[in-house]
Amino acid sequence: MEGSMDVQSTSTEARAGAGETMKRIAVLTTGGDAPGMNAAIRAVVRTATHQNVEVLGVLHGWSGLIQGELKPLDSRAVSGIINQGGTILKTARCQEFHTEAGQKRAFETVQQYAIDGMVVIGGNGSFVAAHEFYTRYRVSCIGVPATIDNDINGIDMTFGVDTAVNTALHAIDNIRDTSTSMERVFVIEVMGRNTGYIALTVALAGGCEEVIIPERPYDLNAICQDIAEGHARGKASWIIVVAEGAASAVEIARKITAISGRETRHVVLGHIQRGGRPTAFSRELALRLGGEAVHRLLAGEYDKAVGFCDHQVVTVNLEVAIQKKALDVEGIYRLIRILT
Amino acid sequence: MEGSMDVQSTSTEARAGAGETMKRIAVLTTGGDAPGMNAAIRAVVRTATHQNVEVLGVLHGWSGLIQGELKPLDSRAVSGIINQGGTILKTARCQEFHTEAGQKRAFETVQQYAIDGMVVIGGNGSFVAAHEFYTRYRVSCIGVPATIDNDINGIDMTFGVDTAVNTALHAIDNIRDTSTSMERVFVIEVMGRNTGYIALTVALAGGCEEVIIPERPYDLNAICQDIAEGHARGKASWIIVVAEGAASAVEIARKITAISGRETRHVVLGHIQRGGRPTAFSRELALRLGGEAVHRLLAGEYDKAVGFCDHQVVTVNLEVAIQKKALDVEGIYRLIRILT
Amino acid sequence: MEGSMDVQSTSTEARAGAGETMKRIAVLTTGGDAPGMNAAIRAVVRTATHQNVEVLGVLHGWSGLIQGELKPLDSRAVSGIINQGGTILKTARCQEFHTEAGQKRAFETVQQYAIDGMVVIGGNGSFVAAHEFYTRYRVSCIGVPATIDNDINGIDMTFGVDTAVNTALHAIDNIRDTSTSMERVFVIEVMGRNTGYIALTVALAGGCEEVIIPERPYDLNAICQDIAEGHARGKASWIIVVAEGAASAVEIARKITAISGRETRHVVLGHIQRGGRPTAFSRELALRLGGEAVHRLLAGEYDKAVGFCDHQVVTVNLEVAIQKKALDVEGIYRLIRILT
Amino acid sequence: MEGSMDVQSTSTEARAGAGETMKRIAVLTTGGDAPGMNAAIRAVVRTATHQNVEVLGVLHGWSGLIQGELKPLDSRAVSGIINQGGTILKTARCQEFHTEAGQKRAFETVQQYAIDGMVVIGGNGSFVAAHEFYTRYRVSCIGVPATIDNDINGIDMTFGVDTAVNTALHAIDNIRDTSTSMERVFVIEVMGRNTGYIALTVALAGGCEEVIIPERPYDLNAICQDIAEGHARGKASWIIVVAEGAASAVEIARKITAISGRETRHVVLGHIQRGGRPTAFSRELALRLGGEAVHRLLAGEYDKAVGFCDHQVVTVNLEVAIQKKALDVEGIYRLIRILT
């Protein structure tokens, strides 16, 4: 991806407004990488190309827009990436873009390259930035929800999350072999930033005994009593899933040992949850949303995110998408407890 | 699972009607096995146990009900099976149950064991049988949709399909390595009985060039012309996915060679798509529907299937569930073609 | 596996000596669990059964021998476990067995159940214990090398290690997606107790830039200089693998940041490396060694471990097997550095 | 990889002889693709570069050498491919190279590009061709054994085979779920050309009941009798593995049904066994042999293949390497039968 910059820059006025016909759009990936980003890039490029719209890929997210790191992407450039994790455009977290000066430089790039609209592939933070960018400079941005955190409001699912959930679940299946064989209490920390979505899903699907998430209070004394009672009935192993947004596995394990006197082990799954070959669902969602984003952008929609809601493609205003997403935890939590 | 039959049989009248309190239910898996069946069994058993309802497991599907192959299942009996493919209760296709004599014998088993209701985990054929059984003998049956074919009408998704799709996709990813390296045309046949759901999904997610499904006509001459044109542009490899319900990969490959003169390879993925460790989504769906089926049955619902529709748990009359499910193929098909 | 103890105990003299015909052997798994243990158990049971020798399974390793937790294992008892991680016999680390009192009680169990010989499936610590047990009580023990640490001297490979290596490698592949996309330095800690075998192998196979192992000194200043030089050439991401026996990933990451000023991320893979479905090679090795152990034991060999050495089955005296195994690191290390 | 040909061709005499210092070598992949080929290419390129030797990549195997499809490969060109299946250099089966005219044209390419030596990554057929090429034109070729068939004589293992074995094993694990649940006889055909290596290994590791390979006769009547006897004992499912070099699964399944009257299912695993992410062992072997091939070539060895034999790197004359490799089947076969 590190080829020379051979994009024709122009000195014409920016055509960043909606309504008129778009000739050139830019695509970037920002924030943490999520499995499916490459599939989304592919869909954006090929859908736009099919509509005779040029695509520029911005490297390194907003930072690359500030620095002018762009390159043209044609159909061939996105061959063979559909099943690759990460992002060929690279990504970065960029503080500078949150300053007025940074956005001004980014806007100068938009003008210089005559970019008519932008597809922003990323998560919550990316959408906050895109909304600011639109608000200040009226650059038509459309968001494609890509994050393993599943924290975009107004839509059902972001596209990296199914892969992350399966990766975490596979890890938990592995750990269960040891937990069962050695009759141990394991505390496993999973990602998800401020939400318990991954934790709740893998705790259910993994047959785990308990889950600790930001969306509901927990009581370590009650958990330890459960363990004691289970032990008395002959139950010998436990897996407790902890969402990173709720607590630290190290801490929880230490406290359980302190309260119960029982040996514990902890595992922090960490960055293995971010990468890897995207699952079918992550790819399907990424491809459909990437294609849809282009159609909506060309149709004059902006300052919105595309997504699925009850199996329908919808757009959600970025202002809404970045609000706290409600997670209905009680039904699942009850099921986890009954199934144990 | 083949322990001796130590269930207390009773001579009391069958309590197969709904409305009164259920004390004992039976669970069986029928038709082709689907990943997640064990998770569903686990959910049925533990949810019922939690409600102080006894559970009998019927071995070998309807056939076991005819033969009286039943065994009690308690919480411990369903430990450690949540991530196992297949079904611990075994399954079978049973012609005898489609006869009056067969159903009569099955009903005698229901009476003998004082079974108040039945959870039937299976696909289309299983639901046809359950509906017949209810119609003739008023045995309260509730269906849990388990099949890789995703052909149950009125609900979004059956629970084995996500696993089957990912298995097929993984196989296609592997084949693409060879297809790209050797610059060949591959024709890959996937399962799905009369529906193109798996084929369409993996063709999209696998970045495949073409897909042949029962839901839409296909034109091999046009496909061969596409290949010729692509070849002229420098495109060197193709993957064509064929749904088993539409055509045979062997046939399609032979015809493409006949028309185009090009060497082809075919692969019939076959039964690898049926087994394997269920994905997170297959397990989640199986667990939630298994639990819900028990709740609905105890609440007096029967002759229905449980399922998700737009993220809500719903019940669908079995008569409706067994109708032909419509699959919206055009949007996805167009996307596949644009993305190529 | 937790059935009632229905083994016929006898008051006859122990027949623990070699040379005479064995009628009943015991098998146990001890120390950390390793993928393939179940395959080894299967091979032990079926090979012995084929020779008309009875097999008792000891639960919970040495601890179960002390407590008298034994159960008969026939061919059917080991069905369907060949591809399962963990161990159906459970395992434990047992301090009591390292005391004279503990071994005395264990020996009483051996006498009580008329056990003629024992197959001990485990790693270094297990072999130390088996050798002590033989030395003190002349119980014929034969060791089957099962550990992910690959630290048994005199043989090529223990049988869990190939699975652990592939699990760690898969995790590293995932992390590389993020490392490349976000252009970060990652420090990844892998298991291996006092040896760098896993670390060295995954660093090579994972295309990692650096590896820190107990077998050779490392210089963080030199590593940071490499990173700086690479960065100047345009290289943007690094993965440094750390063997748990050499250092802590947290510490190494912290120090690299301190020296270089560069942001780092660390991941401790931990217990995901222990479990999971064994690879083909882990199963093959487990099955062959399990079978061979029985043959050797029945042929009067004891106080030894079985293993492969240059593709030949060999036995190694336990005293030798527990010595420090030399690992030829320089060739591989040089290759890792050249390939970067 | 399809960039323009910007290699400096020269009119100087070919320096294809050994002994003098090499300045430029070529690398190609030929025959069927094997997982690890990309890792081997990476090792060849980076090892040569480290020795200040230029590397040209030949596209499409021998065919590309005839057509003059070459491109320079530097260290960066082989980034990020270590874990990719297939080959970035493409491969082909080339009849023309087996003619005198074809080889003459290929030799002209060698002279034109001033190629001092060649690394030939491939299997048996590739080595036959390389040996012919050396014999006729004295082009220094060194072979790197890459094939899933494991049929190179004089060395322990070729580098794609471990991946193919694990892929086939995973498929068999999946099929076992259905075989067990539906109590069926499955016949599964695996690859391996004229050898039974894959079949024998997966039959053992997969806990399969029977295996049919080219290296030993088989008796379908005896197999059907085994099935009948097993059935009488309560055994309900069978998996019979067939090597493609011995028989066709379709045929075997048909005959078993004809003899036994029992329903059977067949699966031909086919090309899924060729691709996919290489396992740790496939990568390690590919990297070590790729590096070693360069060292040997630069040291003046040619007309040989590199390989491991009893954990030592060795070279084997191509004439020997292409002989029929003996496979010791009886020990493994007996074990398979005992373990059933």
Verbal overview:
The first copy, chain A, has 340 residues and is α/β, with parallel strands linked by helices. Chain A folds into 2 domains: 24-160 and 278-321, Rossmann fold (3-Layer(aba) Sandwich); 162-274, Phosphofructokinase domain (Rossmann fold), CATH 3.40.50.460. Chain A has 11 helices and 11 strands. In chain A, the strands form 2 sheets. Chain A has a 7-stranded mixed beta sheet with strand order 3-2-1-4-5-10-11, sandwiched between helices. In chain A, strand 1 (24-29), helix 1 and strand 2 (54-58) form a beta-alpha-beta unit. Chain A binds chain C through residues 2, 29, 32-33, 35, 37, 60, 84-87, 90-92, 167, 170-171, 173-178, 180-183, 186, 234, 265-276, and chain C through 2, 29, 32-33, 35, 37, 60, 84-87, 90-92, 167, 170-171, 173-178, 180-183, 186, 234, 265-276.
Which structural traits does this protein have?
homotetramer; 340 residues; alpha/beta; Rossmann fold; 4-stranded parallel beta sheet; 11 helices; 11 strands; disordered N terminus
Roughly what percent helix of chain A?
40-55%
What is the number of domains of chain A? 2
Largest sheet of chain A: 7 strands, mixed
Query: For this structure, what is the CATH class of the largest domain in chain A?
Result: Alpha Beta
Q: How far is the N terminus from the C terminus of chain A?
A: 49 Å
Give the percentage of residues in beta strands of chain A: 15-25%
List the total number of helices of chain A: 11
Biggest interface, residues from each chain: A-C, 41 and 41 residues
Number of strands of chain A: 11
Q: Would you identify the CATH architecture of the largest domain in chain A?
A: 3-Layer(aba) Sandwich
CATH topology of the largest domain in chain A: Rossmann fold
Structure classification of chain A: alpha/beta
The low-confidence parts of chain A are: 1-19
Q: What is the alpha-carbon Rg of chain A in Å?
A: 22 Å
Rounded average pLDDT of chain A? 93
- Seen as an oligomer or otherwise, the chain set is homotetramer
Strand neighbour order, sheet with most strands of chain A? 3-2-1-4-5-10-11
What is the helix/strand order of chain A? EHEHEHEHEHEHEHEHEHEEHH
- What overall form of chain A do the CA principal axes indicate? elongated
